[in-house]
């Protein structure tokens, strides 16, 4: 990596890193039946990793396609590897666009299943082979294998190795498989002599196929993975804020006019009292109702809201993958309620963490979250509250 050129690379350029399969540990995690919080998924992944690889999870960074509804894939990378990458990026003033394992480098590419209910993925790096098996939209198994060079010399030897794994997994060997990595090109160019197996390689920029069953996305970047950017949702939020500000300004003008009239009446009454040196009972005094006073105070609080600071902080913490659905200010509590959607639970938690880093807010709470089953992508819909600091705090 140190030999890579750094000339003509703009600061803060996005650096994409694809880690070879031998550097990572891929495995499948079954959600616990007594799951009550997101931290339970992390604990289940750490326990599964330590049982499979007999290593301490504290020395590894674990990322996963977190879900509580079905077994999900997870990937662990040594903290030492991430440290080397971080120092490399810091020395060249780069930022990480993505860090992914080679086996799942293109999770959104279409794969031509040709009517198959089962899909196999083979990723090769030297003698290291990663095999993933899925049925429709559910991952069934992930296996890390060591195959000698002889296994790739002919279709017969490859077919024998795949047949053994099919027997271990107690499933039928599909006719079409997806291949990636340094698999010899002749396997993609020519199918098995008797047509038993076809090895396919799909280019991510030119997807083909009949059905869309994307493989899970595994992002190994440590810490928050969000970055501010203008999105349709943020434009809607700004439009709503401007409309609220305009309405509050109009109301403030009307209230200021009414208050000025009342002040003039009170001043005239005081002047007449001073001239006559006695109370004047005939002077009409306009009584201000309690509802009017409350309305005036509420409007004044809305006008005094630090809208510019709040919206700037929300915008700085909102990435393009987070969809803001609603914002509701509560001036009396110096709080702002929000509703949003995230593609994954990890993205939801990262967004809450990013909000907490904003100096404008002194507290951020995640009040509710659920999976939106009506959406095919099953995003996480959640509600949160932020409490802003008063001026001078």
Query: Unreliable stretches, pLDDT < 50, 5 or more residues?
Result: 205-213
Count of alpha and pi helical runs: 8
Q: How would you state the average pLDDT, rounded? A: 80
- The fraction of residues in strands falls at 25-35%
- Judging by the overall fold, what is the CATH architecture of the largest domain? 2-Layer Sandwich
Q: Return the CATH class of the largest domain.
A: Alpha Beta
CATH topology of the largest domain: Nucleotidyltransferase, domain 5
The biggest beta sheet is recorded as: 5 strands, mixed
Judging from the principal axes of the Cα atoms, what is the shape?
Answer: elongated
Organism: Cupriavidus basilensis OR16
Protein name: Fimbrial assembly family protein
Describe this entry's structure for a reader:
With 393 residues, the chain is an alpha+beta fold. The chain has two domains: 11-222, Nucleotidyltransferase, domain 5, CATH 3.30.420; 232-240 and 300-388, 2-Layer Sandwich (Gyrase A, domain 2), CATH 3.30.1360. The chain is 33% helix and 25% strand. It contains eight helices and 14 strands. It has helices at residues 38-53, 79-91, 155-169, 185-189, 232-276, 290-303, 307-317, 345-356; strands at residues 14-19, 25-29, 60-64, 72-78, 95-101, 118-125, 128-135, 138-146, 176-181, 198-200, 323-330, 335-342, 361-371, 380-388. It has a five-stranded mixed beta sheet. Strand 7 (128-135) and strand 8 form a beta hairpin. Helix 5 (232-276) crosses helix 6 (290-303). The longest helix has 45 residues, at 232-276. It is elongated and about 115 Å long. The model is unreliable at 205-213 (pLDDT under 50).
């Amino acid at each position: 990596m140190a030999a890579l050129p750094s000339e003509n690379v703009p600061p803060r350029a996005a650096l994409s890193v694809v880690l070879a399969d031998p550097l990572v540990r891929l495995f499948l995690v079954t959600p616990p039946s007594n799951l009550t919080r997101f931290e339970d998924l992390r604990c289940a992944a750490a326990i599964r990793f330590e049982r499979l690889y007999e290593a301490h999870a504290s020395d590894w960074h674990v990322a996963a396609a977190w879900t509580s509804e079905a077994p999900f894939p997870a990937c662990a990378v040594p903290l030492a590897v991430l440290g080397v990458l971080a120092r490399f990026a810091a020395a060249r003033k780069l930022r990480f666009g993505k860090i992914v394992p080679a086996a799942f480098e293109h999770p959104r590419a279409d794969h031509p299943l040709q009517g198959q209910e089962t899909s196999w993925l083979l990723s090769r790096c030297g003698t290291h082979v990663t095999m993933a098996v899925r049925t429709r939209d559910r991952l069934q198994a992930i296996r890390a294998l060591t195959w000698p060079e002889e296994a790739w010399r002919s279709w017969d030897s490859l077919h024998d190795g795949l047949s053994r794994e099919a027997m271990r997994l107690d499933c039928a060997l599909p006719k079409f498989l997806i291949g990636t990595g340094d698999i010899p090109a002749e396997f993609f160019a020519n199918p098995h002599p008797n047509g038993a197996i076809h090895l396919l390689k799909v280019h991510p920029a030119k997807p083909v196929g009949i059905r869309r069953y994307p493989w899970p996305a595994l992002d190994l970047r440590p810490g928050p993975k969000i970055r501010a950017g203008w999105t349709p949702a943020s434009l809607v939020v700004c439009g709503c804020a401007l409309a609220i500000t305009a309405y509050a300004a109009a109301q403030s003008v009307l209230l200021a006019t009414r208050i000025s009239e009342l002040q003039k009446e009170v001043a005239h009454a005081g002047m007449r009292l001073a001239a006559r040196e006695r109370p004047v009972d005939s002077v009409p005094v306009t009584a201000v109702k309690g509802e009017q006073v409350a309305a005036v105070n509420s409007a004044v609080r809305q006008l005094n809201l630090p809208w510019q600071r709040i919206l700037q902080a929300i915008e700085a913490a909102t990435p393009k993958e987070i969809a803001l659905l609603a914002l509701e200010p509560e001036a009396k509590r110096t709080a702002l309620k929000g509703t949003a959607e995230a593609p994954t639970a990890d993205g939801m938690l990262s967004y809450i963490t990013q909000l907490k880093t904003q100096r404008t807010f002194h507290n951020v709470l995640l009040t509710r979250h659920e999976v939106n089953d009506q959406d095919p992508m099953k995003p996480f819909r959640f509600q949160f509250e932020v409490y802003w600091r008063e001026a001078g705090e």
